[in-house]
Amino acid sequence: MAVTTDTASDERTTATDEAQVPRKQRTSGANVWFGVIAWIVGIAFFFPVFWMVLTSFKTEADAYTTTPKIIFEPTLEQYEGVFAAGIGPYLANSVAATVISTILVLLLGVPAAFALSLRPVQKTTDVLFFFISTKMLPVVAAIVPIYVVVNQIGMLDNIWTLIILYTGMNLPIAVWMMRSFFLEVPGELLEQASIDGAPLWRTLREIVLPIISPGIFATALICVIFAWNEFFFAVNLTAANAGTVPVFLVGFITSEGLYWAQLSAAATLAALPVVLAGWVAQNKLVQGLSFGAVK
Amino acid sequence: MAEVVFDQASRIYTPGAKPAVDKLSLTVADGDLVVLVGPSGSGKSTALRMLAGLEPIDAGSVRINGRDVVDVQPKDRDIAMVFQNYALYPSKTVAENMAFPLKMRGVEKEERAKRVREAADMLGLTEYLDRKPKALSGGQRQRVAMGRAIVREPQVFLMDEPLSNLDAKMRVQTRAQIAEMQNRLAVSTVYVTHDQVEAMTMGDKVAVLADGKLQQYATPPELYDRPANAFVAGFIGSPAMNLLELPRSSSGVTLGGIEIPLTREVTNAVGSRDKLTIGIRPEDWVLESTDADAGSVVKAVVDVVEELGSESYLYAHLAEDTATKIVVRGPGRVKVRFGDPIAVRPTAEALHVFDVESGERLD
């Protein structure tokens, strides 16, 4: 999954770089070789994904030919099969867990990041370290206590368990990212607002947030990707009711492992929303991630 | 309308360290424009920020119209500030930027629009009211920042190097505009700059700061004619005053083989010191013929000629002491070039005499 997005953006960067290089420079031999290497690496990453998408439109018979078929009659039969196998509720769970947890992360993370950027005090670094330290413990090590707690309070196989865990999982990264965006806002603006008499929340909403909205957007997208792709909590804490798409996919491999075309269709469906989101948002995303350079 | 008083006001960033602003005391009379000027790190911006409420006042007090503002929030000090980078809200239009402080004060919508319109008229911004700051030139942005300060109708204007992001021509133009506007509105103004030309041309009074300490607080002519110490002497005026450390002679000081006499009052003030720092402004030299008697003129060799059209500045070193450099103002179209010898004589009445150690003025 992550590979897909990386590959896609790799391809794009390569393409734009090539286009922007003035013609004179391109004649140098080294550049040609770098270009060739970049294309080889790009294709090596992209090809398996491309093959997966291609396979998802084949019949099982076409998918199994020993000389792989490039030309074939495309069919949506496999996608119908995946929906018939019941991916629907899993998709709904994934959407719920992703959207709600991302909204919660933003609601909690924006004020936290603003506070931490506003006036650095001695404890600021401690707080920031605490946030990031929660990411240091391997999730595998945390799963036993989490399982016991979730079991005790009767929240196993409940979508809200995943929503809370995903919020906790993404919050530290989001606060760190957004704090760096907040730090880019010139201090003069905040001082001007305080002389003008704007209360803090109004300064945040009317003056600061419009400036850093690309950064907030990029942060939200990263949270969406992480939550959508999360597998470990989902597979351990959910079953039929609250299972997400990755859980469905794994179950599908075991039960329908021999049906390559249908498996490819399921995997493509799982990958599609994030790729689409990344593609639609690519301008904002680049703007957001390179925020510091814009000032 | 307000009088602003700094009363022994200090800002100490780290206890025990040298204060950023050290017991600053000065009074801005109602309606005056006072310029705080000094090199970077002199504490001028910090002093302004203390008045704005953006920096705490660690000792002493600051009063606006008799009211001690040490514990008053910036928004309640009835001030308006213009920042170096203008601090315009990027997501708001020009009109919204200018109206924002009024909106925060709960001024009615019609009244807001009226005051924004008036200010925009005065500053020639009417046609830009619907634009975002991004779509304005530097000079226009600067005027929007001024406009936002004007619509507030505050007791005091604070300006922190408001011209330093403009190009040279724009700066001169805007300088005159600000001075004119300030005269018209007669609002007390504290203006910070590192540019002594701005200080001299705009200020009713000028406070020269260095190392957090007030060096002199006076009108521009006073600063120029009677600098209180060698620092002010060297800081005010362009090119800078020649400050030469010279040995005493029987009736004056010796420079380049000639004796420069000192007046009786100065001689009395100088006492038994055997060395003095003598200040001579570039225009206080007289260019003499190079054939003149060796005993009456100082011989020098030209290093650089700055031809300004109406006048010129000759940067030279003394013929007999190459380490001593002087700057001499000459007429426009001066004939001398690099390496030419010149002969100069200081005007005796125009000398400034300072103590070598403390830099204090002696006469």
UniProtKB/TrEMBL annotation, chain A:
It is found in: Cell membrane. It is a multi-pass membrane protein. CDD domains: TM_PBP2 (cd06261). It comes from the Bacteria. Residues 1-22 are annotated as: Disordered. The chain crosses the membrane at residues 32-54, 95-116, 128-147, 159-178, 207-228, 234-253, 260-281. Keywords: Cell membrane, Membrane, Transmembrane, Transmembrane helix, Transport. SUPFAM superfamilies: MetI-like. Pfam families: BPD_transp_1. Residues 91-281 form the ABC transmembrane type-1 domain. The keyword Transport applies. The keyword Membrane applies. Belongs to the binding-protein-dependent transport system permease family. This is Carbohydrate ABC transporter permease. It comes from Actinomycetospora chibensis. The lineage of its organism: Bacteria, Bacillati, Actinomycetota, Actinomycetes, Pseudonocardiales.
UniProtKB/TrEMBL annotation, chain B:
It holds the Pfam family ABC_tran. Residues 4-236 form the ABC transporter domain. InterPro entries: AAA+_ATPase, ABC_transporter-like_ATP-bd, ABC_transporter-like_CS, ABC_transpr_MalK-like, ABC_transpr_MalK/UgpC-like, Mo/tungstate-bd_C_term_dom, NA-bd_OB-fold, P-loop_NTPase. The keyword ATP-binding applies. PROSITE patterns: ABC_TRANSPORTER_1, ABC_TRANSPORTER_2. The lineage of its organism: Bacteria, Bacillati, Actinomycetota, Actinomycetes, Pseudonocardiales. Coiled coil: none annotated. Keywords: ATP-binding, Nucleotide-binding, Transport. It comes from the Bacteria. This is ABC transporter ATP-binding protein. GO terms for molecular function: ATP binding. CDD domains: ABC_MalK_N. PANTHER family: MALTODEXTRIN IMPORT ATP-BINDING PROTEIN MSMX (PTHR43875), OSMOPROTECTIVE COMPOUNDS UPTAKE ATP-BINDING PROTEIN GGTA (PTHR43875:SF1). It comes from Actinomycetospora chibensis.
